[in-house]
Please model this.
Amino acid sequence: MQRLRLFSFLLALVCALSCSAQAHDDDYDKALFEPKVPAPMLEVLKTLAGKTTTEALKDKNLKVVMKITVPDCEYHYGKDMSLHAALDLVLNGSKDPVQLLNDRYIFISGAQAPYLGGRGFLWFDTVDGVGLGGFFFQPTNGEPTPALSVFSRQVKEPVVTIDHFPVTFLQIMSQWAAATHMPPITTRYFLNGLNKRVLLEHDEDYCVRADGSVAAPNDPCQQQVAYAADVDETAAYYLDKIHYATNGTAWMLGPDQTAWLHTRDQSCGGVLDCRIRVTREHTHAILHLPPPHAHGRR
Model:
């Protein structure tokens, strides 16, 4: 069954990439990712295609590339450890094959962690010299759970949104999340090169269909938008409590947040648009960000 899921996942990856326009490959701000991974080093990584993740982790070039692209930070995965150590726990021992997609993108994955449902992946663009990754697990220490941390040491921006990432990376991450049974809406963070954990807000519009049409106001998708706003508000509250530390922990919910939720629900009643708007405004206020756009940009 596991091999069948993996095969289905790989087919979906190939379809996602072959069906997307090549123009999308350059539709992001490459200047955010510095320093670039030297092209010759990434070209060498192409030779890892077909090998297992465990075999790939022994490669000296991959270790150097990971030093450039994986934040050198402490991470709380059951206990404090480096992010590199956490990745080793979920990747080392994995028999997932290293994938080379469109002769350009390298994808490495694993779910070998012995606890908390940990799993992760690495993604590299051999043309642009960019590296990103993700780590998912289910914290049990009172913080928002489950949680996905997207990361790149190359990005030093204090605020990051989904729009900052390459479209191809988002497609691959989405397919990986579905294949590993990650909840469609879950707490999301970004670990940056400043060794800070920031909110990766759900600014996607779940009410825009694949053909570009917009669902009716009473469509169930509005519940998804409202739930995503709640998830982001809770994550923002948590991040403020831990001062954006990559290994911070805090118990939820505090009395101040509970009081705010009560006030919001009384003010908005059952009107979802009001709840979504007020929640997003509160999230941005917690994070000291400008007021949000009308919900949904994707």
Q: What stands out?
A: The radius of gyration is 19 Å.
